[in-house]
Amino acid sequence: MGIRKYVRDGEMIPKGYGVAWVDYVCDRAVYYPIGLNMVISFSRDVYFWIKHFRKGWIFKHDEEIARVEWYRGYDSGKRALSMIDVSKYLEANPRNRKLFRDMIAQGDKDK
User: Fold this and answer.
1) For residues 20 and 30, is the Cβ–Cβ distance under 8 A?
2) Residue 35: is its pLDDT beyond 70?
3) pLDDT tens-digit profile of 58-109?
4) Do 89 and 96 contact (CB within 8 A), yes or no?
5) Cα 111 to the chain's mean position, in Å?
6) Residue 13 phi, psi dihedral angles, 5° rounding
7) Full 3-state SS string of the chain
8) Strand ordering across the sheet containing 28-33
C-alpha cells in the first residue's frame, strides 16, 4: 500500500492527507500527505500543460483553417446550385418542387 489514497464521494478523508486532484471519470479524489499533495498537484498540472496546452495553439490554428475552408465550400456549393438548370429536375417529380422550395427558403434564412 502506497502513500496515495483514493476517496470516493461520501467517504472519510484520511487524517493528515490533502486532495491532489479529482478524478471525475472514476468519481473519486486522489489524496496525498499534506505538503506532498501540493507538489504532486503542481507537477501534474505542469505535465498536462506541456502535453496538451502547448499543442492547443497548433490545433486552434487548424480549426480556424478548417472553419474558413468549410464556409468556402458551402458558398461554392450555393453558387453551383444557383447556376444549374433545375427546371428539368423539378418537372420530373412534383415532390422535388417542395424540396427545392424548402431549400431556397432555408438559404434565404441563412442570409
Assistant:
1) yes
2) yes
3) 555 666 677 777 778 777 777 776 666 666 666 666 676 677 777 777 765 6
4) yes
5) 27
6) -80, 135
7) CCCCEEEECCCCCCCCEEEEEEECCCCEEEEEECCHHHHHHHHHHHHHHHHHHHHHHHHHHHHHHHHHHHHHHHHHHHHHHHHCCCHHHHHHCHHHHHHHHHHHHHHHHHC
8) 5-8, 28-33, 17-23
- 34: cell is 499534506
How far is Cα 23 from Cα 21, in angstroms, rounded to an integer?
7
The amino acid present at 10, given as its one-letter code, is: G
Cβ proximity of 10 and 23 under 8 Å: no
50-67 as b/e, with b when 16 or more CB fall inside 10 Å? Answer: eeeeeeeeeeeeeeeeee
Task: Record the pTM.
Answer: 0.47
Count of beta carbons in the 10 Å neighbourhood of residue 13: 12
Take residue 42 and report the three cell numbers written for it. Answer: 503542481
